[in-house]
From TrEMBL:
Keywords linked to the UniProt accession: Oxidoreductase
Organism: Kwoniella bestiolae CBS 10118
Entry coiled-coil feature ranges: none
Gene3D superfamilies (alphabetical): NAD(P)-binding Rossmann-like Domain
Xref: InterPro entries: NAD(P)-bd_dom_sf, SDR_fam
Entries under Pfam families matching the protein: adh_short (PF00106), adh_short_C2 (PF13561)
Homology family: Belongs to the short-chain dehydrogenases/reductases (SDR) family.
Record-level Gene Ontology MF annotations: oxidoreductase activity, acting on the CH-OH group of donors, NAD or NADP as acceptor
Record flagged with keyword NADP: no
Keyword Thylakoid in annotation: no
Protein name, as recorded: 2,4-dienoyl-CoA reductase
């Protein structure tokens, strides 16, 4: 029997789905027939995704949604669920990097990395879990956060897959990027923690940790010492190249499939051309 990945009738929500790895994830889900919702913050990807939408004959909806703006995130969860349909798969992908020695790093830089890479995916996951459980998407008061349904075990049959990084596992070199590394280690751990919390609702949550992927994120090392970074990164990758974003996109689609991943939760999948084997 051929193995097929068929997302017809499924709706997928991807943050930062219009560029880089996010666009590759959008493309892979579009090929698999999903209805897609993507968010962006700085570059409106409507033109790019309308071509994809035409090519694969799937609807792709775009929302402006800065991940650090929790109010807007909650609003978009409600809005998109109403306008497009209930979401089956959530892929918190958006992220930012910062090459900076800790001694030189300002509070606002640290805040920016943590808010975008760690808090934003966590608040997005919380918003979706609450929405799926029939609660208000926002936690309106810490004294009275609302109550999920009690009693029988639920099977919401939802999938969450966060895009983390091997930087949450090993210290990348020669660049200094402590904030990024910590944000990704935190994100991988958040997925493991939530897998335990939400298994009873039928929500699985996993992460994927790519090595170096050829996107805007790594294309401009700083002038001077940064000139040699890309050579070192490639040399430290046994397959002697960076990933193409499509290789990450296709794996994400496999990891979210209700057929192939129903018993997988709390797992972090490393996809790094062998980088972490050395
Ligand atoms: N490239 C790598 O080598 C690599 C390796 C491991 C993990 N990753 C992770 O993979 C994910 C995607 O990275 P990439 O390489 O594709 O980077 P990228 O090409 O720089 O794209 C970043 C994406 O994140 C979105 N984004 C940034 N800040 C945001 C914010 N505050 N709110 C909402 N969206 C925001 C951007 O939206 P706009 O287009 O609107 O700016 C864009 O879609 C990130 O989580 C990154 O940490 C990357």
């Amino acid at each position: 029997m051929p193995v097929t990945l068929d997302y017809n009738g499924k709706t997928v929500f991807i943050t930062g789905g219009g560029r880089g790895i996010g666009l590759a994830i959008t493309t892979a889900f579009a090929r698999a027939g999903a209805t897609i919702i993507i968010t962006y913050t700085s570059k409106d990807p409507k033109e790019v995704v309308s071509q994809l939408s035409e090519e694969y004959k799937v609807p792709i909806h775009v929302y402006h949604c800065p991940g650090e703006n929790t109010e807007r995130v909650n609003e978009v969860i409600d809005l998109a669920s109403r306008e497009v349909g209930e979401v089956d798969v959530v892929v918190p992908n958006a992220g930012v990097s910062l090459w900076r020695d800790c001694v030189d790093m300002s509070d606002s830089e640290l805040d920016w990395i943590m808010k975008t890479n760690l808090y934003a995916p966590m608040t997005l996951c919380r918003g979706f879990a609450r929405h799926w459980l029939g609660m208000s998407t926002a936690v309106k008061s810490s004294e009275d956060p609302g109550k999920p349904p009690v009693g029988e075990k639920l099977n919401l049959n939802k999938r969450i897959l966060c895009v983390s990084s091997i930087s949450g596992i090993v210290n990348m070199n020669p660049q200094r990027q402590v904030a990024y590394n910590v944000s990704k280690a935190g994100l991988t751990m958040a997925c493991k923690s939530l897998a335990g919390e939400w298994a009873k609702y039928g929500i699985t949550i996993n992460s994927i940790s790519p090595g170096y992927v050829a996107t805007d994120m790594i294309k401009d090392p700083p002038p001077g010492e940064g000139r040699e970074w890309a050579d070192k990164w490639r040399k430290d990758t046994p397959v002697d190249r960076f990933a193409d974003a499509s290789e990450i996109g296709r794996m994400v689609v496999l990891m979210c499939s209700s057929e192939s991943s129903s018993f997988m939760t709390g797992h972090d999948l490393v996809i790094d051309g062998g980088f972490t084997t050395y």
